[in-house]
């Protein structure tokens, strides 16, 4: 990021610019913040290009088409104004580095990472091609790496298949060294050209160099057209597939979906079976002849196997650093609000064209700090549960609560119910509301069978527009599928993990980062707050899943200059003393516990205190349970935990909520109550974007993940394609002091 210059705009549409992310001949890309507080990358086209009516028309068509592209590995379009003097396009901000940066700094990637990278990028191209577009500039610089995989960006020269050229006849569009031969010779582009570029990217990722030599320009174009690619150093099992992608004749290349399936399968045996990817020519065609397009298929071609992604070394730390840098930028002043004719706020003309934001139809939302802090600019007709049009009464939308209210998790369920009740009451008390909210609660008592029945009852109620919950720590796949079958949006607040496959719940929205990424907060703590030079990583064999996740994050992202030591914590009761002695004898200044068993964490705390260890002691949230505080006693003091929930009593933004909770329920809000309150605000905000009768329930899931809600805990914003919450301000740190957790704040602010 670079500071803004005196020539840079301070506002682009509804976005306030914060810094420069990059610049080129066509325009400038800014890091910007929306009125709701979410970060975005806003590309502004220079006025001299926009003065060309043909260019503006093409930009308009491409912006609208790009907004329709969905998929987990494509950065979603958030909004655009194609009629401005300098047209702009806003996409979600991804704080990760580009593939070019990662490979340039650290060299070639491991083969498993290359396979996963290719499978996901091929999946992104499937989405692009299914939308009728061609990307035309797939290259390492246009691939950003996030914690869960890559993101394909920059559709600046993308075009409709069969559209006329963007420039004069004979011009070459794209990046030499990654262009297909037909593009390099200024021929007509098509989807096979993107597959060729993908093959070039995979060679670069696998070897650290492009397949047609270093250096761009005419030399690279000549070699692309006339010479064979250099695949030296590519893992042999990948050579047949990449060679097929790099075929000179477009007709000889596999489709993007075939590449995705082949890489996800990894071998004829299917996902997870190691081995080579078979040469496309080994697969018989329809008439018994070799078919160059026929590649191995997985049983399901919906997405690559989620367990293949292995993050390049240092990626989590770099993402955390960039996220912290972006969040540390000063908060811009809010943009002025302009209402339409007669004060009703109706948008028209160019102002309406600025509302290209996906999912927003007929309404503008203004960010605020409490439930449903928005102003709807059109009255809605009858919706789910509402009166008939023209009755003069606003419709009523019912929010379902799926909670454990009578089982082992009833404390969390009760916190959810109280938070939701306050949110519904606050919304209905607003004078400017355009619909009312009602609440329907279903108790599953923590029983899986009852949970399915509770989901069925909520799904069968046509007045329920969305559900908050379930409230258990584990989000089960069968519940996700049950709600998915009925296309009912579910907003999950408290679950720390899930058995559902990534990307399977199109109507699922989880408002917290899962436990497997909480270690990012610990890495930040040991990097900035309490810098550690010798870190002892303790992986608890009694919790192998969380141990592996925490350990992997620290191995990939040990703070710069720190030495990472390791000592396993074996099952049973005999290993705690050995770990404590290792911490002292190795002169470690920090101990990281990988595991979520609170009782075992207490035993480790006691052992460390017994050996006189006084360095930093950190763990992720699941280890902070009642058993930890009760069993560790004084040895718990000083431990720091990364959690996904905040303490509303310590947040100025939640002061009113805390007071209302005490007044109504006679107690301060418990864990997850404030987050449940914000979940209702998010649903109400999304419901407020529905302008047509009867469309609230059917479309609210899509609107939820495209909405931004500035809640009392934090701003809720999502990756619209993966429906995953943006995590930088969603990980909080607590330190145990005098036997009680004290809230320190978001890890980036501590």
From TrEMBL:
What is the top-level taxon of the source organism? Bacteria
Q: Which UniProt keywords apply?
A: ATP-binding, Kinase, Nucleotide-binding, Signal, Transferase
Annotated Protein kinase domain residues = 15-276
Name the residues that bind ATP.
43
Which InterPro entries does the protein's record reference? Kinase-like_dom_sf, Leu-bd, Peripla_BP_I, Prot_kinase_dom, Protein_kinase_ATP_BS, Ser/Thr_kinase_AS
Fetch the Pfam families from UniProt.
Peripla_BP_6 (PF13458), Pkinase (PF00069)
- Using the UniProt annotation, give all residue ranges assigned to the region (Disordered): 264-307
* Compositional bias (Basic and acidic residues): 276-296
What the record says about family reads: Belongs to the leucine-binding protein family.
**Name the record gives this protein:** ABC transporter substrate-binding protein
């Amino acid at each position: 990021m670079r500071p803004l210059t005196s020539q840079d705009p301070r506002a682009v549409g509804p976005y306030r610019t914060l810094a420069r992310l990059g610049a080129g001949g066509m325009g400038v890309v800014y890091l910007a913040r929306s009125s709701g507080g979410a970060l975005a990358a806003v590309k502004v086209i220079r006025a001299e290009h926009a003065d060309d009516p043909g260019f503006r028309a093409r930009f308009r068509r491409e912006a609208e088409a790009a907004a329709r592209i969905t998929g987990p590995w494509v950065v979603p379009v958030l909004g655009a104004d194609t009629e401005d003097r300098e047209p702009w396009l806003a996409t979600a901000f991804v704080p990760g580095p580009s593939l070019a940066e990662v490979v340039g700094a650290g060299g070639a990637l491991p083969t498993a990472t290359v396979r996963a990278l290719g499978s996901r990028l091929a999946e992104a191209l499937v989405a692009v091609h299914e939308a009728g577009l061609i990307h035309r500039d797939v290259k390492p610089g246009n691939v950003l790496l996030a914690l869960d995989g890559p993101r394909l960006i920059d559709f600046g020269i993308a075009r409709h298949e069969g559209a006329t050229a963007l420039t004069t006849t004979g011009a070459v569009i794209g990046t030499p060294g990654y262009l297909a031969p037909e593009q390099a010779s200024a021929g007509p582009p098509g989807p096979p050209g993107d597959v060729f570029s993908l093959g070039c990217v995979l060679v670069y990722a696998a070897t650290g160099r492009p397949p047609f030599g270093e250096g761009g320009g005419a030399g690279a174009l000549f070699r692309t057209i006339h010479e064979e690619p250099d695949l030296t150093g590519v893992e042999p099992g990948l050579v047949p597939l990449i060679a097929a992608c790099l075929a000179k004749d477009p007709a000889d290349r596999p489709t993007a979906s075939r590449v995705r399936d082949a890489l996800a399968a990894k071998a004829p045996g299917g996902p997870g079976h190691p081995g080579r990817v078979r040469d496309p020519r080994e697969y018989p065609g329809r008439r018994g002849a070799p078919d160059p397009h026929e590649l191995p298929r997985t049983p399901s071609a919906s997405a690559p196997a989620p367990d293949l992604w292995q993050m390049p070394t240092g990626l989590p730390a770099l993402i955390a650093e960039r996220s912290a840098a972006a969040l540390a930028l000063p908060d811009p002043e809010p943009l002025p609000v302009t209402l339409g004719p007669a004060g009703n706020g109706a948008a028209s003309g160019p102002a309406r064209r600025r509302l290209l934001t996906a999912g927003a139809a007929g309404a503008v939302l203004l960010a605020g700090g409490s439930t449903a802090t928005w102003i709807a600019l059109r009255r809605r007709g009858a919706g789910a549960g509402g009166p008939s049009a023209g009755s003069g009464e606003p419709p009523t939308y019912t929010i379902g609560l799926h909670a454990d209210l009578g089982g082992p998790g009833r404390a969390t369920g009760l916190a959810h119910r109280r938070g939701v009740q306050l949110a519904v009451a606050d919304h209905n008390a607003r004078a400017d509301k355009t619909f009312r909210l009602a609440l329907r609660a279903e108790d599953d008592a923590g029983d899986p069978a009852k949970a399915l029945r509770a989901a069925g009852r909520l799904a069968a109620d046509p007045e329920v527009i969305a559900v908050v919950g379930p409230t258990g720590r584990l989000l089960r796949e069968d519940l996700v599928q049950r709600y998915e079958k009925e296309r009912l949006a579910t907003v999950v607040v408290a679950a720390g993990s899930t058995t559902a496959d990534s990307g399977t719940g199109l109507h699922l929205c989880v408002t917290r980062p899962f436990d497997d990424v909480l270690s990012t907060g610990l890495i930040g703590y040991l990097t900035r707050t309490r810098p550690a030079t010798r870190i002892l990583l303790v992986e608890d064999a009694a919790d192998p899943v969380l141990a592996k996740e925490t350990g992997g994050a620290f191995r990939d992202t040990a703070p710069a200059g720190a030495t990472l030591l390791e000592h396993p914590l074996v099952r049973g009761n005999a290993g705690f003393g050995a770990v404590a002695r290792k911490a002292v004898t190795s002169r470690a200044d920090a101990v990281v516990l990988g595991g979520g068993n609170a009782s075992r964490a207490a035993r480790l705390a006691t052992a460390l205190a017994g050996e006189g260890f006084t360095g930093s002691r950190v763990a992720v949230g699941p280890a902070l349970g009642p058993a930890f505080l009760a069993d560790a006693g004084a040895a718990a003091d000083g431990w720091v935990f990364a959690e996904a929930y905040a303490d509303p009593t310590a947040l100025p933004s939640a002061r009113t909520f805390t007071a209302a909770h005490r007044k109504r329920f006679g107690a301060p809000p418990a864990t997850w109550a404030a987050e449940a309150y914000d979940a209702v605000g998010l649903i109400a905000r999304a419901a407020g974007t529905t302008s047509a009768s009867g469309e609230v329930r059917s479309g609210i899931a899509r609107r939820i993940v495209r909405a931004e809600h500035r809640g009392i805990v934090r701003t809720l914003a999502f990756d619209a394609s993966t429906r995953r919450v943006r995590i930088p301000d969603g990980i909080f740190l607590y330190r145990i002091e005098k036997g009680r957790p004290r809230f320190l704040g978001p890890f980036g602010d501590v």
